[in-house]
């Protein structure tokens, strides 16, 4: 497992840096755990998660050893984005952006169209469930980040992250209007239209 992670690390650093920029710490410890108890102790990780990020490390759950190359690549890039952005991310940041942007950096782009019910911004509580409902929350957050990136550009998505997730951030609706110039209803309508277009 450590050798597989090492083999993916340069690509993960490049993917995160391409979106986030160079201003993040490169010193990081990556830990692989042998038991769920060890995973919870080192990172507070839940059994549903393949990895978790703390202030100074990425910790992989024991089940991560069974992941294929594509899944491992996604998880490493996702967690590395959390690590890179942690210094400027408030503890009460909206998870629809912290998780959605991490997935935006890490997941390959599947083609549209996509179901219209993806155009719902999940709240933080939607990420504290299990099973299909948790997967749906991640998917909705990812599709939102994809929409913003496609329609407004990656620099604007990064600015939205900083505006909505930074220390002392306003409520999410205010950050959306300030950064994107659209209120919640107008943004949802534009998002639904974008999801419906093949591309």
Oligomer: single chain
Average of the residue pLDDT scores: 95
Helix content: 55-70%
Radius of gyration: 17 Å
Q: Determine the N-to-C terminus distance.
A: 36 Å
Give, in spatial order, the strands making up the sheet with the most strands: 1-3-2
Largest sheet: 3 strands, mixed
Strand content: 5-15%
Low-confidence stretches: none
Overall outline = globular
Q: SSE order, as H and E?
A: HEHEEHHHHHH
How would you sum up this structure in a few lines?
56% of the residues lie in helices and 6% in strands. The chain is mainly alpha-helical and 199 residues long.
Describe the structure.
- By secondary structure, the protein is mostly helical.
- It folds into 2 domains: 2-88, Zincin-like; 95-196, no CATH class.
- It has 8 helices and 3 strands, in the order αβαββαααααα.
- It has a 3-stranded mixed sheet with strand order 1-3-2, with helices on both faces.
- The longest helix has 21 residues, at 132-152.
- It is globular, with a radius of gyration of 17 Å.
- The model has no long low-confidence stretch (mean pLDDT 95).
Which structural traits does this protein have?
single chain; 199 residues; mainly alpha; Zincin-like; 2 domains; 3-stranded mixed sheet; 8 helices; 6% strand
How is the secondary structure organized here?
Layout: H1 2-20, E1 29-32, H2 36-43, E2 51-53, E3 57-60, H3 69-85, H4 95-106, H5 132-152, H6 154-165, H7 172-180, H8 184-196
Parallel strand pairs: 1-3
Antiparallel strand pairs: 2-3
Helix pairs in contact: 1-3, 3-4, 4-5, 5-6, 6-7
